[in-house]
Amino acid sequence: MKKITALVLSAAALLSVSSAFKTPQPTGWEPLLDRNLSKWQTYESYRHQLGYKGTVPTNSQGKTIPPIGYGKNEANVFSVVIQKGEPVLRISGEIYGCVFTKQDFTNYHLKLKVKWGDKKWIPRLDEPRDSGILYNSQGECGVDYWHSWMLSQEFQVSEYQRGNAMGDYWRIANSTADIRAALNPTKDTLRYNPAAAPVTMGNGNSGFCQAAANYEVPNGQWNELELIQVNGESLHIVNGHVVLALANSAYIKNGQRIPLTHGKIQIQSEAAEVYYKDIMIRPLTAMPTQFAQYFN
């Protein structure tokens, strides 16, 4: 009996020690990343080449080349490594594509950490490193210019160079939104300005809007990004700073504006090596009061 009791106590002690090394999850937050990517699916499009002009690639006979497709992981573009006991998503960037959540989300607060790797691929060898968080994602992958992603809104994850910054906005496919923005005085592009009048993305403009400012930390360090999305109003937050707010998220179909207020979350593979960790989400019932000022 003493031997059995000792074994039970020993096992309990081991469980206690094991639990002590697990990072406690904040109340209300759901982790989205594990070592098996069990909450995500994958999609790969093509190995893009220099000179790409937005058309589906063809072979030597002029026939359309099919995409690599769903559930594929050619060249191990998507992998999970364990660092300090926690899962970290590595995206090599070698082939354009994405991981995307199996679940559809609406009205939520998403947060995660991101840092750059060293590798870059065609067509971004001489361009800033790039990735992105695509939200309110609906439909099939491959409907965008790069034939790689779903209809969605983009929270750009970009290395700060030539005006590109963490938190920029891109419309993906035929999405649109209203963003308070003014022309950048040094470049013919829009920049988020909460004091400016709203501009409809894609209505006579490129559908790109720069973040208000750059708050990226030096390469090799982790940036903390947050996305708050409630009823078609969204905030892009970089290392604690609100850098962009958009309202009236929608997409255009047959000339009509249709609300785009829910969907899956995609993380892009876009010709640059990048790492993501601590991907967490929690539901919201309304825009937090401290951020209401951005939508008045």
Automatic annotation (TrEMBL):
It comes from Hymenobacter mucosus. InterPro entries: AL/BT2_dom. Gene3D superfamilies: Exo-inulinase, domain 1. GO terms for molecular function: hydrolase activity. Residues 28-282 form the 3-keto-alpha-glucoside-1,2-lyase/3-keto-2-hydroxy-glucal hydratase domain. It comes from the Bacteria. This is 3-keto-alpha-glucoside-1,2-lyase/3-keto-2-hydroxy-glucal hydratase domain-containing protein. The keyword Signal applies. Residues 1-22 form the signal peptide. Keywords: Signal.
